[in-house]
Amino acid sequence: xxxxxxSLPEVDHQRVVFSDGLMLDCGVTxxxxxxxxxxxxxxxxxxxxxxxxxxxxxxxxxxAETQPLTGKPGWWEKVVGPGLPxxxxxxxxxxxxxxxxxxxxxxxxxxxxxAEGRGLGRPWGIDFPSITIRDMVRAQKRLVEHLxxxxxxxxxxxxxxxxxxxxxxxxxxxxxxxxxxxATAAHHSAQNIAFHEVGRAAIxxxxxxxxxxxxxxxxxxxQGLSVARMVAHITYLSESALTRKxxxxxxxxxxxxxxxxxxxxxxxxxxQGSTFIxxxxxxxxxxxxxxxxxxxxxxxxxxxxxxxxxxxxxxxFVASFSSDWLFPTAESRAVxxxxxxxxxxxxxxxxxxxxxxxxxxxxEPEFHAALGGFLRGAADAVGV
Amino acid sequence: xxxxxxSLPEVDHQRVVFSDGLMLDCGVTxxxxxxxxxxxxxxxxxxxxxxxxxxxxxxxxxxAETQPLTGKPGWWEKVVGPGLPxxxxxxxxxxxxxxxxxxxxxxxxxxxxxAEGRGLGRPWGIDFPSITIRDMVRAQKRLVEHLxxxxxxxxxxxxxxxxxxxxxxxxxxxxxxxxxxxATAAHHSAQNIAFHEVGRAAIxxxxxxxxxxxxxxxxxxxQGLSVARMVAHITYLSESALTRKxxxxxxxxxxxxxxxxxxxxxxxxxxQGSTFIxxxxxxxxxxxxxxxxxxxxxxxxxxxxxxxxxxxxxxxFVASFSSDWLFPTAESRAVxxxxxxxxxxxxxxxxxxxxxxxxxxxxEPEFHAALGGFLRGAADAVGV
Lengths: 384, 384
Prior knowledge:
Chain A is α/β, with parallel strands linked by helices. Chain A is built from 10 helices and 14 strands. The relative contact order of chain A is 0.15. Chains A and B meet through α3, α5, α6 and α7 of A and α3, α5, α6 and α7 of B.
């Protein structure tokens, strides 16, 4: 882990800049607001076939094409494409880098600006203001309007993307015909906050973090960010998946020698940590995990989640995975119950999988069939 | 977390020194072997009333008296004492600091010695050899013999203490009349190894660890050790206990301001981290977590756990806690099934508790009653 890590390469992302900026929940206005995004498929003449996909904590807008930093396939190439569940032959798919992210949208890595939008010649770094899931959704709404779309056919997202989908339906019900929150919850639990705090503590403890000013010192808190990724990655998998994939196998040895033995699961985790630092920014990680921790849709509505959706015209598809212990099925049931209380049109499915939280990113045919069916039904209803 | 942390204070522990040393599983002989220990109650004339309690990863020998570094009550004062489940009016209770520990037994903090047992004027540090749970048990066996005890009435332990209890029964069946492995498993799972590896990575990443030679530099890897404790601590609790104790409450504020907000669960975790560094040694943490990871009693017996206990004369009491996800009930069931296959006398109970793995340390009357009953039954059978 002591190798030299260069700063993240610059990428010429596709962006739109809103010079009037965005007022955040914390009271600060970011001027201008920049949103980096990608689209797939073609917007129809009625502008009625747009599907917004919201990405998770460490995701990005490159959901169905090569990720420019890693050179790896997009994170949802199994789901988004011609003939796939989110069918780009039929739908116009939009995905934006979240506010606070590190792939081109306004965030800690972008140039800091003053209240008049003048560049200050340095990145925001740790001075980037606190943001919320609602702020992320507000920024996406600006993009959607910019693209000339009044109502989205659907908003779809897993994990933190599901939080955004729920927030979209709560904040802009008339702009969301269908909503698919997947492997998510209407609030972040105490345990989830605790795991995030471990990751943040590891970043804060890295002397190369430099109190957030590593950009100034030409350093990167690689080891702290790596530890943060390692602990998070455990929560993305299930115990049974870890046992199935690794068990107690040793890396490069057949029997314990009690000397330099390394278990395969350790080697895998270290690899996860060391590759993550080549594609993610530590201050973005701090900013976005914080936004997730803040998320509590019921609290925003007097403690009753159903009030977030009262009289909603949106139809919902709620999905969870049986072995997901980060966003367990009980959380999806709670969302479904609240939607039922709000007399919303909602279907809920718990999908059997031993792959844990990560299942929403993996090859899960039953999930893909259910999501595809929901979207086809919505498209048929709208006449797309 | 940037406060100055002194090195751990020296304590004049009660110890026994075996000048002939101990040959370890890794092939190295530690000379001499030092075992620090405490006893409670009185050994009877027949030397038949001795109960050995084995402590967990970060426990110590001060189970029923004030811990000398923290000034806090012993970790099992609710269980060990006059009239308590491990009744010191009836039993002679022994507890030894594990080999590799940092409370006086041979371990990374103690003076390094050469093959002839000559002190080298520096601590072992990272040069302390790899140890196993079996090595810990071998060291305890020397202590028990030193105390003139041929057969223990019982060996009792939770978590890593339960691993030692199982190893005792497997290695020295004639020396263990009764065995109570609690909240434990016969091997460390892939997920548990993964969590340990996160803690070790955090320690390794701390520049104050100095490649293990922090003792030489007058430094302590306080931040790395603190992060290791934080992540471990989450695994000791259940999600429901975290929700019940902290939920989404804020520390020192009533409503989110999105500025300097800290959730109560974060404040609690940070406190756990910052107090731990005042009582535990980082190199000991590395050594002992490794020993736990190595533990696999079935693998030591050709893959069949029942072969570890074939023909055993020992009676067993296996206990798990319903909300323990670090050592889930399934692991205790597997131990019980193996004991049944070995035709051992065994009772198993899953105790209802929402307190997670830590329940074995807490006020759990049903557990205390069951353990007390098991020990009384054993004592009656032996005629103590």
